Amino acid sequence: MDADGEMSLNTARDLIDEAEASTKQTQEVVDRMVFTSKKQDQQFEKWNDTIASKLEELRNKITRAHHNANRIRLSMTSIGDSGGTCVRTYKPANLEPSTMTTIVLTYAISSQLRDALLFYLPSSSTDDFVAIEMVNRKMRFVWNVGGGLGEVTHPLHIQTAGDLNKDQHWYRVEAERVSNIGNLWVRPVVVPEGSSLRDSPPATNASLAGVGRFDVGPGDRVWVGGADRRHPHLLSTQSGLVGCLHHLHLNGRPIGLWDFSTQNPHSCTACVEGAQEVVDESSYSFAGDGYSVVTHDSSGTYNKYLFSVSLKFKTFDSNALLFIGSGNSTGKYVSLTLKNGRVIFRIGYGGDSSLEMSTTEKYNNGKWTRIEASRYFDRKKKLEKGVLKVGNEVRDGAPTIPPNQDSIPDMSVARYYVGGIPPGEKNLPPVPGPFLGCMSEIQIDQGAYSLLKGKYWGMQASCSSKPIGVAGFYGNGFIELPSHSLKKKDNFGFVFSTSQRDALLMLSTFEGLDRLSYYSVSLRRGQIDVRLNAGRGEVRLASVSSEYGDSRYHSINVAKIGKRLELRVDDVLDAVTNLPEGSTTFKANGESGGLFFGGLPTGFNTTGRTFSNVPFVGTIKDVIFNDRIHGFDEPLRFEEVTIGRLGPTTSQPRTNEPSNSIATGCRKITSYTVDPRAVSFGDVPFSHVQVNFRKRAVLQKNFTLELDFRTFYQNGLIFMIPGVRGKQPHYLMAALRNGRVQIVLKGRRKIETTAQAVFNDGMWHKLVLEKEDRKMTLRIDSIDPEKTKTPKKMNVGNVMYIGGLPETGVLLPQNLIHKLEGFKGCIRALRVNDREEPLVVEQTNPYPKVGQCFPQVERGSYFPGDAYAIYKNKFNVGSLLELELEFRTSEMNGVLLSVSEPQGYPALSLELNNGKVIMSGDMGDRRPFRVVQELDSEFTVCDNRWHRIQAHYINDELTLRVDDHDQSYWLSDNGHLTVATTKSPLYIGGIPEHASIGTLETRENFKGCIRNVIISGERRDWTAMASLHNVLHTSCPLPSS
């Protein structure tokens, strides 16, 4: 390392340390002032503006110092020759959960050591990690993103460098992870022309398919040379950084080796400047938050009266700074910007005099565009002119207030800002934000400038060919991309973040192609809703949770394996279904388009495709089809989308971080209203309503039958009309089969018709069945009707069963009765031939097996305060028990789970008690234990929001976790925990009066909603419980807005 390099290194670190110390001191002053301000409000108000500006100035100073440190190109190594001692950590900006990871580094080693840990990024919230290490002189890429270990080792042997100043023994290492698939490229940095190493294929391997979300966040750190908790699957044995590390990039952004967060003291030093790849320095890539600052070249001749700028650019930015040159005089400048996609050329002459020209066309289309802009002062005519040439457009003009000769911007000592402005820069006019995209062939005042010679940040030489993997949506636009057919074994997925509960995320379809081949992903009431149709009827996949409009990043993956379809959300398998007979391929129109993200063009026909059409607000990224990355940078068309940038909704802090607002009371729900016309079915066996028509033949010839239904379940009888006496096998039936409405008419022959969409989404749907002469038509909502031929007269009776069948007395074949499932949901508004048939009777309810319906519902089961479920009548805790459930309540107390022998032990329980979540147990030795999770506030549990509990009992260890808060532990110190042998009922949501209280501290039954109960790895539906007592298990009420 030369003297200049060491000086710049020390200067950068001194600036950072000084600025951070100043900021800390100033913040302490502000804190003291805030405390004092209660008595000195007026004085504080006056101080506040001054201190705020000083804090802003210090923050800018820190940022500039970090930028300076990032520009240092010196490599890094450990001090001493005996081995590695250097360990550093870094905090990259914008770390978020992702299904894609790329790491690029350059490395050389001059010692004989054989192992080195070069890069390690662990998650602080899970066991996820990615790492690159050298093991026995071969590079190894290793990861775990929730599906077990993935690893790939490259066969190229890393040679020892005799002289680090020579390029031939520097290596370029690139690791890429796309979901569960890892690729690793290793080659010398400098490769001779024609060498097979330049385009050699990567070494490839995969971890468990379908699991690919890497859970990292803004607080996580990159380690170089070591780790605080070294993962057991890392094989490198040498501690500290071995060898010489040069460039390091994560997800396309550089990590400045000298802009570290922490390090082992006196352990790291600089080695040489590493080998550089040959790149095109006539073009530059800007990351969207960067800039380059160069000064006027004073070696050439300067002509005050003529100034020009020319460059080529490509971008999707609507508003961005391309160039601004400014001298010493305030208000005098020359700028090129983008505004709403149009190029703006502006000259400021000081005061009110200026010149502005704009193109008519928009040029933020991702294609190369050339700009030539110039100003010229005619000294004879005393006239200033400007000319703007962009593509085929030419604009010229003159200032409205003609400037005199002295008002012309003097660029002889100017600073030229390209692509952005450094933080804290003063005396510049308001300009748009930084540029995202590529520039090339930059000429300023007829001279060529290298943008890497001055101060720069967030840019690098050459234009990146990597796909742009992120796009922001604002609720008024869309983007259309080439589409993809899904064949026998295909998959797709992406990551999104939004605060919306209803929105269209993605749709693959095409107007003019077969409209019955499509697939879509929507948010409906916060739930992931996937609809797919391969031409033979729609199928639906839905998430088991409904909390995805929470501004966090969530991953979606849909896999097709033959006829089987799987939905994974955040790497958890949420739903499985099968395509109807005859369905094989989801067709798409390929390069012609038809794949929409975030919304649809105005007037787009969505009839017959039951997805949300609410435009999306938020971020979509990491789009993957068939394990390959697909970017947003080749759109067929787009409107109001920020390609390459995050949307307006970004991820919120994890819930275990302090919140600015602490709850001061429970969120009380006075009472839930009910729908007076609707009836709820399925909470008890043989739930049904019987309707007797006065006219015997009302449904035998021509009729119109209408009703509304709502359910989350795939199967269930909507109505049944048995045949007349003597015609026992005859009937007319409507039922849900795999979420689709099926009409069956059984007479001399069996006639079936099925709607092409699925409807078990918890929304109200209108069913209309019409028969006219020999034609029957089924209409549901606004989708295309289904028509079929029928006999002119049907031998059905005048008794209609809604929602199910009674236990006895129905004239139907027994094999049919045994196959039918009762409806689990709500039905209302029954009309026959325009006459309303009431399902709710005012007097004493003649249908005791039905209930009332809440106006709005979501997935889950409602416990009204006197309810409980029995999971299993004889449940054995044993030595291993894993519990997981979600709850929502407005109460501070309530039983969630309990199992206890009659004498009170052995026992295990989970409850809410005064706002705490408590797990207690007694393994039979009369020595009870408990573990408590205290939250931000005692009222957090009763905020009527969904909370997730995970509890584990394994031998002598208990762990309890609520949401993303830190785990609470209980560990036996004397080994007194033993196997808990129980053979009593496991209760959920409460216990009956006769049951033992066991280890519970309260007998108060839970009041609220419970869902997603998983016990020892098994998710059991409420219909599969041993018994239910007063549990409304078909849905969970939402409070009125």
Outline the secondary-structure elements.
Blueprint: H1 3-36, H2 41-70, E1 74-78, E2 88-90, E3 100-108, E4 116-122, E5 129-135, E6 138-144, E7 149-153, E8 171-178, E9 181-188, E10 203-206, E11 222-224, E12 244-250, E13 253-254, E14 262-263, E15 268-273, E16 283-295, E17 306-315, E18 320-326, E19 332-339, E20 342-349, E21 354-358, E22 369-378, E23 383-390, E24 393-397, E25 415-418, E26 436-444, E27 447-448, E28 455-461, E29 470-481, E30 489-497, E31 503-508, E32 517-524, E33 527-534, E34 538-542, E35 554-561, E36 564-569, E37 572-578, E38 595-597, E39 617-625, E40 628-629, E41 637-643, E42 675-681, E43 689-692, E44 703-711, E45 716-722, E46 731-737, E47 740-746, E48 750-754, E49 765-772, E50 775-780, E51 786-789, E52 799-802, H3 814-819, E53 825-832, E54 835-836, E55 851-853, E56 857-858, E57 861-864, E58 868-875, E59 880-889, E60 894-900, E61 907-913, E62 916-922, E63 929-933, E64 947-954, E65 957-962, E66 968-971, E67 984-988, E68 1007-1015, E69 1018-1019, E70 1027-1029, E71 1036-1037
Antiparallel strand pairs: 1-15, 2-11, 2-14, 3-8, 3-12, 4-5, 5-6, 6-7, 8-9, 9-10, 12-13, 16-25, 16-26, 16-28, 17-22, 17-26, 18-19, 18-25, 19-20, 20-21, 22-23, 23-24, 26-27, 29-38, 29-39, 29-41, 30-35, 30-39, 31-32, 31-38, 32-33, 33-34, 35-36, 36-37, 39-40, 42-53, 42-55, 43-52, 44-49, 44-53, ...
Helix pairs in contact: 1-2
